[in-house]
Amino acid sequence: MTTPSSNTQSNAQGSFGAMLQQARKNKQVSLEEAAAELFILKRHLQALENENFADLPQAAFARGFAINYAKYLGLDSAKIANSFDAAYPNELKAKSLNSTDTPLRPMGTLQRDTHNRIRFNPLLIIAVIGVIILAIFLFRMVSNASKENSAESITVVEDISATEQAQGAAIDDATGIGASGSALNLGGEASASTASLNVTLTDTATVNITDASGSSLISGTQTVGEYELSGMPPFNVQIDNVDNVSLMLNQEAVALEAYATDEQANFELAP
Asked: Are 47 and 16 spatial neighbours (Cβ–Cβ below 8 Å)?
């Protein structure tokens, strides 16, 4: 009388290995993918599907593998466990019982696959942040420098005096009036010596006159009267209410109405 083999017993109870394999194929999952998800060695999953118990670890571990594999594939884990118990060879069960007093060691587990994962180096992250901060700092420095240069350029343009503008645009003609509206060359050639001004007011008016050295010869609201002035030409002349004022340079009359706009005149005057 012969004893049925383990495979025969497995077939009598239903092949759990075939159910595992068929479920995996239906799920369209490879052994490699299942092993990575379950942290179980591929060769142990293969052994479960083939019901090759000799290639599996101790019965307790192998049974746990079968239950987890069944849950992963969506099978009835209790049914798979019962089928596994029925198919597990008696001689391997006895061997497992004899080795229970030995220290248990984890078998068949896998570490999570990190091959395709990106590992971040903290020092590298700090270095990248430092580079970004430095770039922002340099960008701000360049922007501020550009703004300062623009402001200086504008200041230079605005600092051009009315005298320089008049001299740059003056065109001598028969009347001695420059193109910029400045009274130039009224007495012939320009003189580096002082010149005299005579201001006569017939009514209250605001008169401001400074000479080339920046000295104020007359300033503010003036009353009726005659004012004798002298200084270094050219003179910067500003007059409100020009109808109330007459002006002479070196005893020569200056036609204020030629430079007046809305009874206000602002011009350079030189002999």
From this structure: no
Is the pTM above the cut of 0.85? no
The model's pLDDT over 229-267, given as tens digits with 9 standing for 90+, comes to 999 899 999 999 889 899 899 989 998 888 899 889 999
Q: Is residue 59 part of a domain?
A: yes
Amino acid residing at 7 = N
Number of residues that make up the chain: 271
Domain count, the chain: 2
Number of other residues whose CB lies within 10 A of the CB of residue 193: 7
Q: Is residue 146 part of a domain?
A: no
pLDDT, tens only, 2-42: 333 444 343 434 689 999 999 999 999 999 999 999 999 99
DSSP H or E run through 209: strand 205-210
- Is residue 68 domain-shared with residue 188, that is, in the same domain? no
Provide the residue type at 107 as one letter: M
Give yes or no: residues 170 and 109 share one domain: no
Q: Helices (DSSP H) in 39-119: which residue ranges?
A: 42-50, 59-73, 77-87, 90-98
Q: Which among 76, 77, 60, 65 is positioned nearest to 37, based on CA atoms?
A: 65
